[in-house]
Amino acid sequence: MEQIFARTGRIPIFAAGNDDVDIEMLDSAKFKLLIKHDDEEREYAYKEKAEKVLADAKDKNYTIVSMKTHWKEMFKTRMI
Known about the structure:
- This protein is of the alpha/beta class.
- The protein has one domain (2-74).
- Helix content is 29%, strand content 18%.
- It is built from four helices and three strands.
- The protein has helices spanning 2-8, 23-28, 51-56, 71-74; strands spanning 14-17, 31-36, 63-66.
- The protein has a three-stranded parallel sheet.
- It is globular.
């Protein structure tokens, strides 16, 4: 978050992240999008280094997008 503010002089309105290092950035934004890497077929699935952000996501009002569930709706064709 500090890097975003230093570069733009603004706090982000929208932030997207996928692991624990993104918590500060997500917390500072008005709209928070968390990508949950849970589809080992499209990209490797992982929870390592994302345990805290996943555990706190609902309490912190993050919008959670599951690669396994939601990306099937967004990308109707098979991703390579």
